[in-house]
Model the fold of this input.
Amino acid sequence: MNLDLQSLANTMLDAVRTTASARWPALRALAEVEMRKLAQALIDIHALQQAGHISKARARQLVGMQRTATRGVLCTVKGLGLLTADQAIAAALGVVAGAVNGALKFKLLDVPGKEVKASFKAGKDLDA
Done:
């Protein structure tokens, strides 16, 4: 099964747009570039794993590194925090997990379940 760059990137971008909602205008330019890069990385990881050049474990490590790199770039958007960046990335990878996992014939990406929202007030302990 082949993965299509444009289809993956657009599907991921739609998920980021939905997740980012009000922050979308500030995030859009970087998100478009980063989702294309992330989609290309998934295609490259698929090709390497299918050719036997990397193991499943290495494929998972490479995806983790790509997530971290994408998070770092998205966090450069003024006012965008780690939680929002992580939610956007999780949504993007979640919507393509079925296609990517199916192409690889193993679970590389997790399908997100119920979202956990962080909530706290500045200066307050989380347990208080």
User: Anything to note?
Assistant: Residues 114-128 have pLDDT under 50 and may be disordered. Residues 5-104 form one domain. The chain is about 65% helix and 0% strand. The longest helix spans residues 24-50.
